[in-house]
Amino acid sequence: MRIRPLLALSALTLLAACGQPAAQSPGSGTPSSATASSSAAASPSSTPAAREQPPEVTAAAQVGRCTAATLRGELKAGDPGAGQRYATLLVTNTGKANCTLYGYGGLALLDGSGNALRTQLERKPSPGPKLVTLRPGGKAGKELHWGAVPGPGEPTSGPCQPAPAKISVIPPDERTPFELGWSFGPVCQQGKIEGSAYHAL
């Protein structure tokens, strides 16, 4: 007759254990405020799991993304090679608070009237994505590379493609672009231009 109370107690203990929420570990995806919030809610700040969160997650939760409204852009020419052209897209935080950049963002070539020209933006693996925090007045860079030699099907006399007058730049994870002038001539091979992720300077 003593076996039944023991079985009942064991069953209650098992049910209580099943009702506990599963432990959550920090994610390894793109930093976001949503990830940071869910991790903080799941683990008290005194637990080892909270202390082991990647610093990118914590920083992204506390600092907003850089937007077109707070960034000023400029293009700095690099050293040209044989048929190769290089430049660094520099962005400056003109806001009054820190902001973050993470990733590649977007870029499009435009003519003088703001119409889109053929653009094939490809990602360079180095430098790759890494969270960059810009203080007011701080700068970050994005490395650009394109060809000056006509590709298949392009004219061999005269410009290989229409020369852009400016470019449209979209910061990572944003939709609103800003524009800046382009004075480097045509982008050959059907507007192919390689761009790195933004990196700290």
From TrEMBL:
According to the entry, every stretch annotated as the DUF4232 domain falls at 66-192
Q: Which domain of life is it from?
A: Bacteria
Indicate yes or no for the key word Nuclease.
Answer: no
Which stretches does the entry tag as region Disordered?
A: 20-57
Q: Which residues constitute the signal peptide according to the record?
A: 1-22
Keywords associated with the record: Signal
Biased composition, class Low complexity, residue ranges: 20-50
Q: Is the keyword Signal assigned to this protein? A: yes
Record-given protein name: DUF4232 domain-containing protein
Biological classification of the source: Bacteria, Bacillati, Actinomycetota, Actinomycetes, Pseudonocardiales
